Amino acid sequence: xxxxxxxxxxxxxxxxxxxxxxxxxxxxxxxxxxxxxxxxxxxxxxxxxxxxxxxxxxxxxxxxxxxxxxxxxxxxxxxxxxxxxxxxxxxxxxxxxxxxxxxxxxxxxxxxxxxxxxxxxxxxxxxxxxxxxxxxxxxxxxxxxxxxxxxxxxxxxxxxxxxxxxxxxxxxxxxxxxxxxxxxxxxxxxxxxxxxxxxxxxxxxxxxxxxxxxxxxxxxxxxxxxxxxxxxxxxxxxxxxxxxxxxxxxxxxxxxxxxxxxxxxxxxxxxxxxxxxxxxxxxxxxxxxxxxxxxxxxxxxxxxxxxxxxxxxxxxxxxxxxxxxxxxxxxxxxxxxxxxxxxxxxxxxxxxx
Length: 353
Fold this sequence. Notes:
Blueprint: H1 14-24, H2 30-45, H3 50-63, H4 71-115, H5 120-129, E1 137-144, H6 154-167, E2 173-177, E3 180-186, H7 190-203, E4 208-211, E5 215-216, H8 218-238, E6 244-246, H9 252-258, H10 260-271, H11 282-293, H12 298-305, H13 309-323, H14 330-345
């Protein structure tokens, strides 16, 4: 593999520092050390190898060597450059191998943890290596954006840096799964997942985040993870655009969807007559959705649908006539609203019941 030339920006101020240190004998200042660390971080993020960076700095030292020093010093420094270059090459090879092994072990653990495929006792032992104590409660947050993400991508790294900067090491595990960002945290540290949701929403350009309920034991992580995934699925079906969804606030929807046949019967018997309306059932179903989402306030529902209040009232009367249920009547409202939720969960009338 051909080594890339190190840009001058990663050696910015290096020659000046060497000249001053050589002339005065002073030690590097705290700001100078901090500036070298910052440049090193940028070079690593840009993908430059350690061997090339060390070699560039040694070459820079040779170029900035003060006048009047014996010529033999230049040869000695060239030899040092070769030694360090070879040493760093071996260091990089070992480091790459260690990183690959660690990443493979981490990915295998995460897959086993989220699918529950491993022996629970063995899984708990492996979890401690990654800072998780599965005997305690944990909660999982899942974020999805417009793109799919892998662990090494800039977005997960940005979110991880923000979490570490804010909370340090608090037994937090950040990873990716199926293109989504995942954060696993102790169940009692609700502020961690709330902060993760805020950072992930921003980093994914307005992505949606779902937070599962805290659950205990090795199987608790899987349960919380599945709750978060289920919340994202429900949000997609119902058109919920809240940036943060909490499974605890959406429990009614899995309950309603649990008996699919019963829900299909309710939708068919309650809303089926809407299919006979001119234009089909969808416009009237949208009317009911807006009406219920606006707290049964006709003026607000009309605004959401870009209708006049009179036109909205006509639609509600048409629904009453076709179904026999009056949306304005509290006695009928619950049945109609439940049926509307069921229709959205079952993708009716676009799909067959």
